[in-house]
Amino acid sequence: MATPDKNGTQTLDSVSLAIIEQLQEDGRRPYAAIGKAVGLSEAAVRQRVQKLLDQGVMQIVAVTDPLTVGFRRQAMVGINVEGDLDPVADALTAMDEVEYVVVTAGSFDLLIEIVCEDDDHLLEMINKRIRTLPGVRSTESFVYLKLRKQTYTWGTR
Which of 25, 32, 59, 113 lies at 20 to 30 Å from 150 by C-alpha? Predict the structure, then answer.
């Protein structure tokens, strides 16, 4: 199960880690098959998976190539912020088009990935919604030309 360590970070036991790895390989894998692989009953796996979901440790989702489902433009945007990062990060997190927000050290204060319908939508996002946020000093966009790899099977090391 997941227990907080001294820093408040969730620490998972080896069985929970093994369940996560099974689901990373195939999010639709039956609980009975997972149970056989990790040495638990189907019911015990079901309970553990539900607890991991409830605790926000993992999500089970369908991962798509955005291009194949009508989103023709993706971009990574580096953002530099004046002052406190949190209000800007919170505002970006609330935008549906923003897939993830990362606070970074280096050339940018924040990195975000956005998924848009087309170039006009991307321009509107950057020019009218991101650059106008209070505290945003500058942005640099990296438009995706082709998705070559997208995977979520890095395991739990």
Answer: 32
CB 19 within 8 A of CB 48: yes
Amino acid, single-letter form, for residue 34: I
Instruction: For residue 102, give every residue at least 6 positions away whose Cβ sits within 8 Å of its Cβ, in sequence order, or none.
Output: 110, 111, 112
Whole-model pTM over 0.85: no
At residue 4 the predicted structure's pLDDT band, cuts being 50, 70 and 90, is low
The span from the CA of 23 to the CA of 90, in Å, is 29
Cβ-in-10-Å burial (0-12, 13-18, 19+) of 93 comes to: exposed
3-state secondary structure of 112: strand
Beta strands in 96-144 (DSSP E): 98-103, 110-116, 136-143
Phi, psi of 99 (to 5 degrees): -85, -40
pLDDT tens, residue by residue, 35-50: 999 999 999 999 999 9
- Can you tell me the distance from the alpha carbon of 76 to that of 85, in angstroms, rounded to the nearest whole number? 18
Residue whose entry in the numeric block shows the structure tokens 């996002």: 125
Rounded to a whole number of angstroms, the distance between the first and last alpha carbons of the chain is 16
Integer-rounded Cα radius of gyration of the chain: 19
